[in-house]
Write a structure and sequence with these properties.
mainly alpha, transmembrane helix, 186 residues
Length: 186
């Protein structure tokens, strides 16, 4: 029995909520721009997270070519991927004006940076799914990029210095762009 439609529906619901949450965070940042100064670091992470969300959504379309039927454990693994993106989106940007009263930089340093842990969890689970479902070699170029993409957000999360986490954010941009291009050309 082909259960891909069920898998795709659940993943799409969670991803839809994730994208919505991220976009609502961006609207919140825009609405309070006069009273709370925006900060480029979480906004850059938001753009990269949005790209990753769309890339994952696109990748879901490739699943039937690889596998038509999924076990419940495989389904749970895919749901965990989508949920980790939702958690990252929910934490990265404030959802209420009250959360942003001290500025986006303060919000990111106190709460938003925890989104980077969820992003790394997504990427680590994604590495596992690529190896399990697509029989991809983890020692290929994409595997090395994925390891970098897992480690850099963790380092940015741990960094207490604005200079350090800003530099890690800037370093992440081209790596994420290369990874996106590679995933779209496969």
């Amino acid at each position: 029995m082909n259960n891909f439609p069920i898998v795709a529906t659940v993943l799409s619901m969670i991803l839809g909520l994730s994208v919505t949450r991220l976009l609502l965070g961006l609207v919140t940042v825009f609405r309070i721009r006069r009273s709370a100064k925006p900060d480029w670091v979480p906004l850059v992470w938001a753009v990269m997270l949005f790209t990753i969300q769309l890339d994952f959504w696109w990748a879901v379309n490739s699943l039937p070519a690889v596998k038509q039927t999924f076990s419940f454990l495989e389904f749970l693994l895919l749901v965990l991927l989508a949920l980790s993106l939702f958690v990252a989106a929910a934490l990265l940007l404030p959802s209420r004006i009250e959360d942003e009263k001290n500025g986006l930089r303060t919000y990111f340093e106190e709460d938003g940076r925890y989104a980077l842990l969820a992003l790394s969890a997504y990427l680590a689970l994604g590495l596992l799914v690529n190896v399990m479902f697509f029989q991809a070699s983890p020692i290929a170029l994409w595997g090395g990029l994925d390891v970098l993409m897992i480690v850099l957000p963790l380092c940015a999360f741990k960094a207490r210095s604005r200079t350090a986490y800003s530099a890690l954010t800037l370093l992440y941009i081209p790596i994420s762009a290369i990874d996106t291009v590679i995933s779209l050309t496969d």
